[in-house]
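ARCHIVE CARD
Drawer: 12
Card no.: 0347
Subject: one protein chain, sequence and derived structure
Cross-reference: see card 0346
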Amino acid sequence: MRKTLTTIALALIALTAMAQGYVPTQENLAEREDFRNAKLGIFLHWGIYSMFAQGEWYLQNAVPDRMEYAKAADAFYPHRFDARQWVRAIKAAGAKYICFTTRHHDGFSMWDTQQSDYNIVKATPFKRDIVKELADACHEEGIRLHLYYSHIDWMRDDYPMGRTGRNCGKDASKSDWPHYFQFMNAQLTELLTRYGKVGAIWFDGWWDHDQDATPFNWQLDEQYALIHKLQPACLIGNNHHMEPNEGEDIQLFERDLPGENKAGFVDKAAQVSPLPLETCETMNGMWGYKVVDQNYKSTNEIIRMLVNTSGKGANLLLNIGPQPNGQLPALALDRLKHLGEWMSTYGTTLYGSQAGPVKPCEWGATTEKNGTIYAHICPADTAKMPAAITIPMAKKPKAVTHFPSGTKVAYTYKNKLLTIDVPANPTTPDHVIAIKR
């Protein structure tokens, strides 16, 4: 049944795309399904902003002179960077892909781009191509690599001034969108032709011109067509907090579950599309490294976040801000380790699953896979653990058991409602009950 539903879903997506004009390739559709099944990825926000240890928006928030900021590149020497150590720690945590910031809003490129000298090889004493080393490690370890790319540039004058970057010393009179657009596409061509298979391009920055009196034309259709031509399977997502545009293959949600708007990034909750979904969230409070931000979410909190995201049928892209010396913070590594220990047992209830009949609620969420519903009982306050949970079901289940032990669970079935008794001492942070349809 799962295979049949997947085939039907892919066919519907293809038909919808044809009606719109964009026709994804079979490789692209297969990549979408692999992405949908992944459930967990790790976001890595890293650039010269880590040198200031104030987060990735330091240039925008605190530095009045972009040229003074750029001098940090001359001292950027992450001598402890080891791509294989990063990738192996992330893989052991149960993540299936990495999304890396190739170029954030400060305009600094983390690869040996030929389009600008403001990059990791030409502008720093480190002289190593970070993207290449990460790509090589990902390919060796069987982890997909996604590449974040910012549409914004607080450094270059040719990028048309938006609502950010106004206090960095840019000259708005030198705006030249055609030149900047050509620059971006040349960089994207490098990223998609030099480093092997790229699972996705993760765009950010559309919102920088969302207050323009005249709607800004990002020429996304042309840019998306270039990406799909260079790598037909490569997925495109855009962090614009709106319904997907034609040519986008995945729908992104920042700091929110799909369909919610607690973060306040949109005027109203964005409509959830049939595309594969992803929610990105920080492990502590910031995206880029901030030395005073040690408020890391506990492993239990991360597990609940992952369960709730899966319960919405989405992936969780969990962020880490690497240190300026090239290491992942010790607390981040600790969370990855303990998350991996949990995923080694419970990951099978998430990987390849779809949203179950009960979406995230006070007691937890449900996922479904191969005819089995997994009830994840994980209230934020364990003192409020329910005595029982209720799940709508058209038919009486064939079996209800604790996962992974397989021992039977007491339940009642009446009026198409399954009521399950929660044990007095449930497994925490997530007590899982398997319900066979």
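Annotation on reverse: Residues 2-20 form the longest helix (19 residues). The two ends are 12 Å apart (CA to CA).
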